[in-house]
């Protein structure tokens, strides 16, 4: 969770091409599940999910060439349930420049862990309107859920220790065991 | 039964001497290298200490009558005795003000009842300190008042001040001025300086003090009357007084321990403990005041002991009353701030103020057989720190909390009685 | 940070952090439902000993948008003088369980005094002529938005009017200077504080000399009581010399912006109708007030001492 000094060397569990293929597959699954993408909007969670949402939007555009999928971002720091319990990382600016009322919102994040970020995101979305449905796409589901939340689209399920750090980027997925 | 002070260095007309002191019936009865005690004598051990004439404070606010919740004549007297004082000049800004014989007699009687120091009432220059009509100075002088002031404020009207000085000429009294042109100090909270400007509070400009010092020097020249300047606080004032003294004018002046030691910067805390009138000034002013004290321009150290109840000092800085405690810390603050010998301390804290207040027959005398036993025994090197809970004063508004001071009063003898023994008041 | 009492206390780092955080709050305020649960369970009391509608409303709106509970203790100075002491008021309200006091008082230093009597955070909403840090944050944020860059290097800020009695001026001098601007004060000498030679500013007594080189023209409110105090002969003469007239407005650079903390005295310091000024930021200042105060409340209440202590525990 927190940056601590004595870390062992990381282990690559997905390569860059693996991540790219996972995003492509998820793009197909989104289109398939929603019978096209005409009512779909993407909302990447600040900060790890926004680049993935960007790539997803491009891939969906390749599948559905006549469609531009609206793509926004959401910062959930004001909706977290641990404000005052841990240091607040300076938030980013949310940007949802389209109407989400009646849309299918696909929340996009890099890693699904306790589920608390997603809970905060669901609450934050309420400020912008009432979607028809909300779906969740993540690259890595690392387990250890603390809330009844499950992903709709997953790149890879990867068992982890709670002390591990999981890092997702276009170059791949690294797991680093963090000593305590 | 005698009181014997044993083992001390005594300040006498022929300098510092290692002597024991025997006191009987309120006077010094024997000074010799070793005095044997008998069973019922009170022996004060004073190894490493100095016996000095008891201190005389030209400037004490005892608050009684009128503000007995901040200080009474008894608690103020006790604070004075603990500070080595045997005489306190009580400032007249009581309620009612000390502008009539009954009030003067009340203050004196309360002082006698407490029996810790001689409480010397000052008289007002003008009725009710209102600056309009002269107080009955001759009447008060006939009843023993030797020093007159409207302290708390200065006499603003130059015509009234001129009349007061002329009127005082034949009475053998001294007028004492709180130098402040109040038109220049409306709403003032602290010294006018870059600090006050940053804090956005009105300041007391040095000019407000210096204008009145200058005016009264000129009036002294014009009338021939003597004048004492209370609590000088600026380099400009020191300069004016130095020049006037060179010209031979009958002028005296005092400085407080806090104006010798604390600067305006302390107000940045917005702590009203540091609000005082005149205000704490700059480091340069402090240097000029020290120089003035050491070269004799300033005759006396006076405390301007000004107790205030906590709830008043907890008001916002601009509303809180000015003033700080001084009696119990005076010696320690002065010695920690200005390097002075035992003789110099005796001069500025006892002999000179006794002369200015007209008390030289009883106070401020160096030890000699047959002289009144108003003495203090002080350890000039003892270090101690100020605990407001240990103060005898009814109020706690000392700015010296937690500071380490050098120089402590061990015993005080007033009219031959031990009123403070090992720092503890006996009455 | 525990308190927000003066710009000096915030420091440059705190100032920049709050300005960045204000961007985030501004986004929340643009949402269809501008309310987040960030400060649920926190209680904020406005303790106003001096009348102020806009500052108080702005703080209370900010607190509500962050889901904090709000209480208002509004009192005229006279009734406090008669009754309960400041200390009793603060201790009583503290006993009710509050997390922050938003304080305005006519006496300088009150936010520091109050901090001795409560564990709650203190936010200074104006103390005498001393500080008004959230107004300075509003003003810096508004300028930053207008010029589109974070550093104020090379920016000429001219503050005009009653500097001597202005807490807004004191906070703004500190804040603008911290961000790199060159600040010039323009006022008649009677409305200038004593001993400004140590301040990081230039002092001028002529608005006409400064106006053409000004990038940010900051007009202060002139209160008519300054005339009664003999600090200026009359409001007309003041307006002629130090007011923003049409002629002066035309001499402003095309990029220059005009600001005023409000409420304006039309016909005294503001001869032009600000609506006629192409680059007036006066409405933006008011609009940004809520976002800035949300950033301050969040910073004080969500990053308080308890967070710092926990942070250490987690890392060890």
What does this protein look like?
The complex is a heterotrimer of chains A (180), B (427) and C (316). In chain A, α2 (50-63) links the parallel β2 and β3. A 5-stranded parallel sheet of chain A has the order 3-2-4-5-6. Chain A has a 3-stranded antiparallel sheet with strand order 1-8-7. Chain A is 24% helix and 28% strand. With 180 residues, chain A is an alpha/beta fold. In chain A, α1 packs across α2. Chain A has a single domain, classed as Rossmann fold. Chain B is α/β, with parallel strands linked by helices. Chain B folds into 2 domains: 3-50 and 370-425, Urease, subunit C, domain 1 (Roll), CATH 2.30.40; 54-356, Alpha-Beta Barrel (TIM Barrel), CATH 3.20.20.140. Chain B is 28% helix and 23% strand. Chain B has helices spanning 73-82, 101-114, 137-142, 158-168, 194-199, 206-223, 235-246, 257-261, 283-294, 310-313, 330-337, 342-356; strands at residues 3-12, 15-24, 27-32, 42-45, 50-53, 55-60, 85-90, 118-121, 147-149, 174-177, 190-191, 203-204, 227-229, 251-255, 300-301, 375-385, 404-414, 417-421, 424-425. In chain B, β11, α5 and β12 (203-204) form a beta-alpha-beta unit. The radius of gyration of chain B is 21 Å and the shape is globular. Chain C is of the alpha/beta class. Chain C has 2 domains: 7-132 and 286-301, Rossmann fold (3-Layer(aba) Sandwich); 133-285, Rossmann fold, CATH 3.40.50.1370. Helix content of chain C is 44%, strand content 14%. Chain C contains 13 helices and 9 strands. Chain C has helices spanning 7-30, 54-65, 77-82, 86-95, 110-115, 133-147, 167-178, 207-210, 225-228, 235-242, 246-251, 282-302, 305-315, and strands spanning 43-48, 69-74, 100-105, 121-127, 156-160, 182-186, 202-204, 216-219, 257-259. In chain C, the strands form 2 sheets. Chain C has a 5-stranded parallel sheet with strand order 7-6-5-8-9. A 4-stranded parallel sheet of chain C has the order 2-1-3-4. In chain C, α1 crosses α12 and α6 packs across α7. In chain C, 48% of the residues are buried. Residues 304-316 of chain C have low confidence and may be disordered. Chains in contact: A-C, B-C. The interface between A and C is medium-sized, with 26 and 28 residues.
């Amino acid at each position: 969770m927190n940056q601590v000094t004595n870390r062992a060397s990381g282990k690559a569990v997905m390569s860059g091409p693996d991540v790219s293929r996972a995003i492509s597959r998820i793009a197909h699954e989104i289109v398939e599940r929603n019978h096209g993408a005409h009512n779909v909007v993407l909302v990447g969670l600040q900060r790890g999910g926004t680049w993935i949402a960007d790539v997803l939007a491009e891939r969906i555009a390749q599948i559905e060439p006549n469609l531009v999928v609206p793509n926004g971002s959401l910062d959930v720091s004001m909706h977290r349930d641990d404000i005052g319990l841990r240091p607040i990382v300076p938030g980013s600016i949310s940007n949802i420049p389209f109407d989400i009322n009646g849309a299918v919102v696909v929340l996009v994040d890099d890693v699904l862990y306790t589920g608390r970020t997603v809970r905060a995101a669901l609450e934050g979305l309420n400020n912008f309107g009432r979607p028809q449905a909300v779906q969740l796409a993540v690259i890595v589901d690392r387990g250890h859920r603390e809330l009844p939340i499950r992903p709709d689209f997953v790149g890879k399920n990867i068992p982890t220790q709670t002390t591990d750090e999981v890092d997702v980027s276009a170059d791949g997925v690294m797991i680093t065991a963090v000593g305590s | 039964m005698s009181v014997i002070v044993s083992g001390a260095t005594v300040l006498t007309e022929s300098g510092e001497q290692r002597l024991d002191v025997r006191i009987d019936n309120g006077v010094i009865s024997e000074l010799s290298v070793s005095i044997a005690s008998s069973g019922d004598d009170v022996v004060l051990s004073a190894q490493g200490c100095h016996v000095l004439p008891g201190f005389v404070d030209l400037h004490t606010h005892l608050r009684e009558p009128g503000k007995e919740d901040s200080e009474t004549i008894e608690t103020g007297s006790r604070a004075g005795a603990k500070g080595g004082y045997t005489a306190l000049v009580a400032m007249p800004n009581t309620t009612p003000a000390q502008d009539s014989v009954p009030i003067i007699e009340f203050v004196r009687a309360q002082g006698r009842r407490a029996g810790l120091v001689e409480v010397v009432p000052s008289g007002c220059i003008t009725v009710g300190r209102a600056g309009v009509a002269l107080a009955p100075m001759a009447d008060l002088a006939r009843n023993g008042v030797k020093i007159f002031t409207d302290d708390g404020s200065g006499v603003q009207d130059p015509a009234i001040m001129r009349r007061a000085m002329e009127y005082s000429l034949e009475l053998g009294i001294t007028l004492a001025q709180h130098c402040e042109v109040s038109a220049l100090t409306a709403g003032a909270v602290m010294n006018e300086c870059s600090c006050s400007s940053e804090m956005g509070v009105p300041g007391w400009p040095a000019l407000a003090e210096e204008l009145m010092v200058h005016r009264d020097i000129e009036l002294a020249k014009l009338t021939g009357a003597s004048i004492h300047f209370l609590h000088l606080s600026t380099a400009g004032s020191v300069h004016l007084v130095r020049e006037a003294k060179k010209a031979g004018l009958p002028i005296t002046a005092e400085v407080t321990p806090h104006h010798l030691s604390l600067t305006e910067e302390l107000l940045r805390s917005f702590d009203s403990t540091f609000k005082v009138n005149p205000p704490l000034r700059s480091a340069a002013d402090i240097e000029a005041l020290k120089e003035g004290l050491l070269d004799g321009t300033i005759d006396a150290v006076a405390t301007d002991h000004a107790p205030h109840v906590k709830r008043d000092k907890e008001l916002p800085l601009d509303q809180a009353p000015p003033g700080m405690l001084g009696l119990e810390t005076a010696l320690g603050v002065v010695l920690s701030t200005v390097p002075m010998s035992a003789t110099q301390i005796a001069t500025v804290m006892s002999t000179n103020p006794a002369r200015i207040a007209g008390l030289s027959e009883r106070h401020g005398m160096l030890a000699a057989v047959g002289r009144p036993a108003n003495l203090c025994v002080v350890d000039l090197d003892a270090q101690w720190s100020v605990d407001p809970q240990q103060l005898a004063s009814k109020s706690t508004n000392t700015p010296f909390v937690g500071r380490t001071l050098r120089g402590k009063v061990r015993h005080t003898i007033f009219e031959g009685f031990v009123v403070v023994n090992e720092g503890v008041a006996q009455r | 940070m525990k308190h927000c009492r003066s710009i000096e206390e915030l420091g440059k780092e705190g100032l920049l952090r709050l300005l960045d955080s204000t961007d985030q709050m501004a986004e929340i305020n643009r949402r269809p439902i501008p309310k987040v649960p960030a400060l649920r369970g926190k209680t904020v009391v406005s303790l106003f000993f001096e009348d102020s509608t806009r500052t108080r409303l702005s703080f209370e709106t900010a607190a509500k948008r962050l889901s904090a509970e709000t209480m208002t203790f509004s009192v005229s100075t006279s009734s406090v003088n008669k009754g309960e002491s400041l200390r009793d008021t603060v201790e009583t309200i503290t006993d009710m369980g509050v997390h922050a006091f938003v304080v305005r008082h006519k006496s300088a230093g009150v936010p520091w005094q109050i901090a001795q009597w409560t564990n709650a955070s203190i936010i200074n909403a104006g103390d005498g002529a001393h500080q008004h840090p959230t107004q300075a944050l509003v003003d810096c944020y508004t300028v930053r938005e207008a010029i589109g860059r974070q550093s104020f290097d090379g920016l000429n800020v001219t503050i005009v009017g009653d500097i001597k009695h202005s807490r807004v001026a004191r906070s703004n001098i500190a804040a603008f200077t911290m961000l790199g601007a060159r600040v010039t004060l323009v006022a008649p000498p009677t409305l200038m504080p004593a001993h400004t030679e140590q301040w990081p500013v230039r002092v001028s007594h002529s608005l006409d000399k400064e106006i053409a080189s000004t990038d940010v023209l900051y007009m202060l409110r002139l209160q008519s009581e300054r005339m009664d105090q003999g600090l200026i002969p009359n409001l007309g003469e003041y307006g002629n010399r130090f007011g923003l007239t049409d002629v002066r407005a035309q001499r402003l650079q095309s990029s220059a912006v005009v600001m005023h903390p409000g409420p304006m005295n039309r016909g005294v310091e503001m001869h032009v109708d600000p609506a006629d000024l192409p680059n007036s930021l006066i409405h933006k200042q008011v609009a940004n007030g809520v976002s800035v105060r949300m950033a301050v409340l969040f910073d004080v209440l969500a990053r308080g001492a308890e967070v710092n202590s926990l942070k250490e525990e987690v890392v060890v």
